[in-house]
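Handout, section B. The chain below has 170 residues.
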Amino acid sequence: MGKLAILGGEPVRRKPLPTVNDKSGRNIGEEELKLLKSVIESGRLFRYSGNMVSSFEEEFANFLGVKYAIASTSGTAALHIATGAAGLGPGMEVLTSPITDAGTIIAVLGQNSIPVFADIDPDTYNISPEDVKRRITDKTKAIIAVHLFGLPVDMDPLLELAEDKGLTVI
């Protein structure tokens, strides 16, 4: 094993990790701000008293070419919905990234399933499709792709792998 970078060894990464405050890759412009302002000014901040959420769900479903899309209050809530809808249960394994919010793991544990961490791509810090493939067992039922810092996971190889192995992708 070589020396740690802090002790003079070769650094694994030369540029800092993106942070939550790093806005690169995000596209929040005047149109989004105008819509946000209209919701706040309407005083209708609850989904059932206004129409923005249902309009978004309908537009998003159309965009995806599916019958329904449901908005949730948070990513954690969405993961609980998705893991339940995927039919996960006791002893089933779910492959995911070790760099994630606790909500990812809690949603898996909430189904009495077992989180299994796949390694990451050192350039994006997203889950490595190659390592996902290596970690699939007969107990694996799903893959949770975690997109980090505005960088999307390379979904094509994950989706191909999931289709080949009969796995659900969340």
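Note. The longest helix spans residues 30-42. Compare this with the example in section A.
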